[in-house]
Amino acid sequence: MLSAPAPPVPIVDVRPVIEIRTASPLNEVAVDGGYAATLVGETPSWQYILVWSTKGVVIRPSLLCDLQESDIVLAGERFAHICTEAGANTVLTATFHHSRGVARLNTQAFVTLAGQGSLVAGSAGRTLWRFDPTRKVKLHVYPSSVIVFNVDRNRILVGRTNTVLELVSRAGKRTATLKIPHVGGAVLRALHIGSIASHRFILSNLHGKRVLTRPVVGDPSLVDFDGRLVLYSRGTRLHLLRVSDGKDVALRFKSQFGYASAKFWHGGFFYVYNVRGGPKPGHAGYVTAAAVKALLK
């Protein structure tokens, strides 16, 4: 007998406690230390960086790059981003108080960045770097290109292949090599790694042992994981998944057009998305932990 089709995932309306609207579209969101940041403008010419908290706008630093910029990463009150010009990628770092970007690395290689707390790390082709406030430090050179997925508690999660992840300390010590499938992305949080592969969210421990799996819709990308909850994207739609019981809902942002981006912060999440037309197409906001819990009722 054929099994019954899975019930459709409910669509729920997101209700923010605060929302900021901008005269230009917004890019993806980065979150750390109670702050969120995104690029404002349009590819390939972003206008400025918007940084906000649960209470509103914090700063709007300008950009030094005349052409394309990458997504922002945050580490406390530091931020970093990539400027792409004339085929070269330049990593720029700054702080909220000294927001003029300082070039830390210029390379022809593809660059990925991540940050948390006092640590900003990145990969450039085969090389893993740490970007300190006044210098860059080469941590390791791999046999082939790697990707930095995220930073958590002074540990860097590095993707070597679609099935091999590595944990690296801020000093560059490789503390674990784990066989975990993660073609849809991976995130390190405390004692676990969340990943997506083969239509499943996979929760693994730091020995690479699978703890549990939950079905996800389609073949999506992992956006964020906080240990209890998962944000993943399928096309332009964001989903919120509760790990304990697999409850999955699709998030509906008012008048959303195109992609939405969100990251967790203490049970709530910051988000950005755009609407079609109008004087203020960019929407950036924050949803409280209580409101997130209500989405999964």
Structure notes:
Helix content is 2%, strand content 58%. It has 297 residues and is mainly β. It has a single domain (11-295), classed as Methylamine Dehydrogenase, Chain H. A 5-stranded mixed sheet has the order 1-27-26-25-24, with no helix packed on it. Strands 7, 8, 9, 10 and 11 form a 5-stranded antiparallel sheet that branches. Strands 2-30-29-28 form a 4-stranded antiparallel sheet, covered by helices on one side.
Descriptive labels:
297 residues, mainly beta, Methylamine Dehydrogenase, Chain H, 5-stranded mixed β-sheet, 5-stranded antiparallel β-sheet, globular
Structure annotation, total helices? 1
CATH architecture: 7 Propeller
CATH class: Mainly Beta
Major pleated sheet: 5 strands, mixed
Number of E-type strands: 30
CATH topology: Methylamine Dehydrogenase, Chain H
> What is the domain tally?
1
Structural class: mainly beta
Biggest sheet: strand arrangement: 1-27-26-25-24
Question: Any idea what the radius of gyration is?
Answer: 19 Å
Principal-axes shape call? globular
Looking at CATH, the homologous superfamily is: YVTN repeat-like/Quinoprotein amine dehydrogenase
Distance from N terminus to C terminus (CA atoms, Å) equals: 32 Å
Can you give the mean pLDDT? 94
Q: Which parts are unreliable, with pLDDT below 50 for 5 consecutive residues or more?
A: none
Strand percentage lies at: over 45%
Helix content: under 10%
Tell me briefly what this model is.
Helix content is 2%, strand content 58%. The chain has 297 residues and is mainly β.
